[in-house]
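Note to self: keep these together.
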Amino acid sequence: MKALVYDGPGSRKWTDVPDPVIADAEDAVVRVDAVTICGTDLHILKGDVPSVAPGTVLGHEAVGVVEQTGPGVRDFAPGDRVLISCISSCGRCRYCRTGSYGRCTGGGGWVLGHLIDGTQAERVRVPYADHSMHHLPHEVDDETAVLLADILPTSYEVGVRNGQVSPGDTVLIVGAGPIGLAAIATAKLYSPLRIVVVEPGETRRKSAEVYGADVILSDAEEARAWVRDNTPDGVDVAIEAVGVPETFELCAELVRPCGHVANVGVHGRSAVLSLEALWDRDVTITTGLVDTSSTPMLLSMLAAGRITLPDLVTHRFGLGEIQEAYDVFADAKDTGAMKVVLLGDEADLTGQ
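Structure:
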């Protein structure tokens, strides 16, 4: 089969690899019908994630149809249409038993496209299938469903939930990429007083407006001025959705005493933590890898129309066009790419 293989920092190739096989009783093999590219994949290609070995098939988000299951799989059968979670869960370790699947010590966690071959391929082996896949409702098409593999639960769990967004809050979101926009959509579930977005890109600022941001600012200086004039103590919640030192430092600077900074971005460089300014302010700073414990709830709400993600998918490609898709996604400033989705020949575009 064909797959997108990491070939060391700065190098990737769409090439022939062996078909996946059932290696454990709890495995499933899934035909990939829709897959997307994550900002984390770009970090891998930059060399920011050295735990990814050359030769690994990239990707950790996909929708498809089950082709084979191991004898230990109970909840899925060949022919089932499924969402593959970006996080695999053994279901038995101390972390999985408390819903912290990203911390799985039984062979799960973030393994797809990281420690084992991932989803940017014609087929993928999914370990711990019963705990790591979700049946898809008829109402949700493949293109929309693939956003539930990572983007939506990450923005909700690591950003909105960790940030403890509450009714009446002023929420600052730094970055209006896919994670930032999904954070707008999920923060609105908690009726904040206002959502303030900081984003230098004009196209993404327009997207933040479509998603319902109340205030849209273009840079750090505008953000500082707005906070000074409108909420001098600082914002209640600051969500970092970029992954560079400057954006984290801005969040820590603009949060109020007793407020929350929720870091969502993947960082490849050190950031300054100015404890001399924070030590007496009772600020809570959270980091995290998504657990995907919220995926069933988010999937139900998406199917019911309680969450909408307008225009998040900006570019569509066939699976064999993945090299072009990477170029478009990596050059988002010029291409306007938000999320790119790659569709197989048998993708379900109707949700039926």
